[in-house]
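Q: Hi! First time asking for a complex rather than a single chain. Here are the components, and I think there are two in total. Is that enough to go on?
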Amino acid sequence: MSDRTDHGSMHRADFVTGLVLLAFSVAVVVLSLQMSRLEHRGINPLSAPGVVPGLLGGVIGLFSLILLGRAIRNRGYRLGIRSDSAAAFVRSPAASRITVTVAWCLIYAWGLVGRIDYTAATFIFVLGFVLIFELGFPDERPSSVRRRVVVALIEAVLVAGLVSAVFRYLFLVSLP
Amino acid sequence: MLLQGIQLFVQEFVGFLHPRILFDVIWATQLGMIVGMLPGLTATMGVALMTTLTFHLPATNAVLILMCMYIGAIYGGGRTAILLNIPGTPANAATAVDGHPLARAGRAGEAIGIGTTGSFLGSMIGMLLLATFTPVIGRFALRFQSFEFFWLAIFGVVISGNLTAPKDPLKGWIAGFLGLFVAMIGMEGIHAHVRFSFGYRPLSGGIDLIPAMVGAFGFSEIVSMMKHVKVEVIETKIARVIPRLKTIWGFRRTITRSGVVGTFVGAIPGVGEDIAAWVNYDLAMRSSKKPEEFGKGSLEGLIASETGNNAAVAGAMIPVLSLAIPGSAPAAVLLAAMFIHGVRPGPLIMVENPAFVSSVVAMVMLGTFAMLILGLSMVKQIVKVLLVPRSKLMPIVFTLCVIGAFAINSRTFDIGVMVVFCLLGFAMRDMDYPVAPMVLGIILGDILDTNLRRALVISRGDLTPFLTRPISFVLFLIVVLSLVSRTWWFVAARKALAAQIVALLRKLRDAVFSKPNNG
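A: Yes, that's all I need. Here is the structure of the assembled complex.
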């Protein structure tokens, strides 16, 4: 049963992906056709910059049509989300662990790095990551909250300090 | 020619026998083993991250460190497969099938010893084949023109798509062609025209492979590691690790076959060590005198997969050096690293820089010996790495992903590229699209683009040379067969044809044997 449900959700995902890829390929072909053929530079039209991207767009379009056709044959166009399976997924600990990991990593890479000092950003990220998972999703290791916080602080200071120092002074990189 | 090759190899090998270089070999191989051991962190990610940490070193030292890291990681994953039943890298999935039952039976030390010896011998066989075939293929490839390189690029993504998505090759091909498209972004190589940048200046430089790769491979690995709370390390005594020579000698045929097959599978563009391990495991089971032991703790199955995956490491370097086309995902990073350091592999390497090929062979040898020594010593101590909680390890890995993506070009834009590919890689993995063909596509995109347009200009728009030149025609046939052989109607037609042939043979047999009776 679950296998059938998995197949069903994959066909639905294939249907949506097929549509997205089809739209993407049409856009690529149109943009390739509109691309400058550099006539003013007198180049051979067969070496125009749009030739290969246009061809690739066409091939991706063809593949997306096959994917779409297959998904339609398997009734992947029935996009209704079953509320019980969706709720079960949202409630599962794995889903919340994934969501928190993705969100915190994105906040660091897009929100913190480049906006505040790199060392401070890294310190906040490492400390936050360790604390979220050590306190929010506790495992069975016998250690107190205070100890976990202290260890997280030490790790954050060491990682932020060492990574910044190695890249700045050893690799001579101007940090973001 | 052979003597010249051996002379070059000895020269390069002796050149590496410097305490500092040997120290690099030891730590890089050990770090590779640790990266490989940690479930979720793969050889590709290890080599990609290490590329960002070694870009300031001279080319030879950097490539040596990356090569040792690669060899160590593919080997190290086997230990996790044996002890945890979780392959440390995808290349060790076949190892877990027999390695873990052996560990459960209290034979973990023996399994680690056999796996290490298999990896060592596989790597040595791969090294010999690398030294033999790279110059041969390189010289043959000197006959290649734009027409052949075009088909080679298409063949790379198609075969990689076929083999990395065996259940649904269409998704593998889509990933490969998307990768080829990604390579179209930015300034093109013939007229220096900027494509698909939409006026955004950082995009005109194109999408760099390393940030894209760190994102696509690294982040999805971090997420999949954080999905579960913890892993169980089985409580087992690790007794004698060094295997008996008699045991190894008993597997000589399996080892030789796995080494040779592993190298050739590794040399197929974009296929990699995981397929090499499975192919060898399957071959070992079919030819074994005790096939019933496979899956229950067969030493033969374990040694076949471990020999195969490490042989594939050297195999993957054959097309990298001779054609500038990677045999596996980590080899793709190594190729990119070579470009970063100004080394240009490809058909001309045997003319321009033959010493580099010998140098890579010497690197494989050094890495292989380091792997053997480290693999058979400090077994109990290194296993403790597996006890480090993921919540403490993963933020360090992601921090290195971010700064690594930034450091090569010092562009904040590359962090953005990494993040976009993080999300793309995560979504692709979730929907069963393999990432390896996409990465291969990013590398092959430029080869495809420049060679197709050059070929069209040479032939003045005539498409027939793509099919009438002998090598082109063979490559075209292979591409078409790779595509068509996976369609349902081809499979059905093949089955129907086979059934008809069998029926015809039966009729013939009946006719032949019934004649004398009638007469």
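A: Chain A is about 75% helix and 0% strand. Let me know if you'd like any chain examined more closely.
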